[in-house]
Amino acid sequence: MKLEEIISSYDPTEQLAEASTIPASWYLDPQVAELERQTVFSRSWQVASRLDQLQKSGQYVTCDVASEPLVVVRGNDGVLRGFFNVCRHHAAAVMTESSGEAGHMQCPYHGWTYGLDGALKSAPDLGSVSNFERKDMGLVPVEVAIWKRWIIARLDQEGARMSTVPNLDVSRFNWFERRHYFLDCNWKVFVDNYLDGGYHVPHIHQGLNRVLDYSEYQIEPGERFCLQWSPFSGGGRALYYWIYPNFMINIYPAAMDTNLVIPRGLSRTEVVFDFYFTDVSDAVRERNLASIAESEGIQNEDVAICTSVQHGLASRAYNSGRLSARREAGEHLFHRLLHADLLSGLHRIRRLPNQ
Ligand code: FES
Ligand SMILES: [Fe+2]
What we know:
Bound molecules: FE2/S2 (inorganic) cluster, fe (ii) ion
Strand content: 25-35%
Radius of gyration: 22 Å
C-alpha cells in the first residue's frame, strides 16, 4: 500500500465515541516506521539524559534519538552541549560508553580528539593533507535544553515545542536505579497499552488492581500530554503522565518512575525505566528494591500482553478497533497527534525534489 493511503486510512476528525484506533498497517509497515523516525522522533524534544548524570564538567551521556547517535556533555565552562556522536573522520562513535566522565572526547578508531566544546583538537598523522581546516571539523552540534530534571534534545530546530504540563512536580524524588526492558512489539503498542485509562488493570494486573481504585480512574487529556490518575485504596494518588510521543512519568506518594520508549525496529521496543524514591538512603534500600520488583512484575504482565497484541495486529482478521469512551481518551489523543505529525511530515517529504 502507498504511504499516502496508509496515513489517510485513519480519520482524525471522529469524536471519541465514534473513533477507531489507527489501523494495523501503522504498526506493521516499514514506511510508517521510517516516516515516524523523520517526523515524530526527529521533530519532537526527546529525553536524552537525566540532569543528575551531568552535574560536573566532563560528565557525558550517549543516547540515540530517531536512530541518530548523540552525546550530551557538560563543558569546562559548565555549559551543557549536545553533539552527534559521529566522528568527522570516518563516522565511528566517538564516545562508546553510555555515560562517564572525560577531559576530552577521543575517537577510538584513529584517535581524533575533540574538546568538550566539540572542537577538533588533534587529528594525528594526517601527513600533508590539504584543504583541511581543523576549525571546520568539530563534532556537529544538536540542540539541547533542560526540562524539569531531564536534558532533552531535538534534531529538527523547526520541530514542536516541548509540552507544557501544568502542576507536574518531580522535585522531591531522588534517582535510585535504571532498568531496561525489551518488547517484541511496535513502540506504539506499548504507548497504547499505557494510555487505555486503566482499562486493562483488573484483567492483566490483578495485584495492582487491589491497590488502585479502578472505578475512580480519571483521564485528563492535554494538548500534547495526557494525565491519568487513580486514588490508592490506602490514600494518596497514582499520577500517570504521558508526554507525547514516548515519555511517561509515573508518580506515587513516595516513589516515581519514568519510561522512555525507544523504537528498536518495526516490532522491537526498548523501554528504559528510571526508578526514583523520596528516600534513597541505605536504611530503606531493601524496601526500594522490593518496590522495583513489584513494578517489574507489572511490567512483565504488560510485556506479555503487548507481544500478544503485536501478533494479532498482523492477522488478516484485524484492521482496527474501537475505543472505550469512558477509558481511552488518551489513546485517541495519541493517535490524532501521530496522524497530524505523519501527515505534515508526508507533505514536507513530498515537496522536496528527488525523493
Ligand atoms: S573515525 Fe574517528 S578517528 Fe577515524
Ligand atoms: Fe499495564
